[in-house]
Specification:
With about 160 residues, this protein is an alpha+beta fold. It has a single domain (about 10-35, about 60-160), classed as Beta-Lactamase (2-Layer Sandwich). Helix content is about 25%, strand content about 30%. The protein has a six-stranded antiparallel sheet, with helices on both faces.
Amino acid sequence: MLLPSTVQEKEIPQDTLDETAPAKAHDLLAFWHKHASKRQLPTRGDFRPGNLGPWIEDISIYEYVPEKDDFQIRLEGENIVALTGEDWRGAFACEVDSHFSTSLHAAMTMVRMTGEPQLHHLQVFQKDWQSAIRLLLPVLLQKPGKEDVLQVFLAIFPIDE
């Protein structure tokens, strides 16, 4: 696993999860891949609360808003709020970036453009310094009779050090 060399390196992209990543991160990523088909994203039907039991409190849901070219937080995971001490529900990814000097919007845009998950090693610093793994998983919200909406499921899993 790549470890930050300085405190300023808050988000380090990863190609894969290594053996030191939390089991819950491996399991959620495997769940996403199980429901992703060749050219189709998993749907909210696949990612409904009943199917997400082991991870439900570790997930925040962002929804792409084309008019703003940004991602709005629709649901903030309870464990994420506990880890950071903050609830950003209703805010946009660009606001989070502006506040914390991060690149969440850029990472989510890459997810939107590629349809592939993004993995990052993070330094969470709002409460106690903590290393964590962040998954950004694209999921399609299908709306009968309306245009489908891209959602990004953000999950953060602390690393026991």
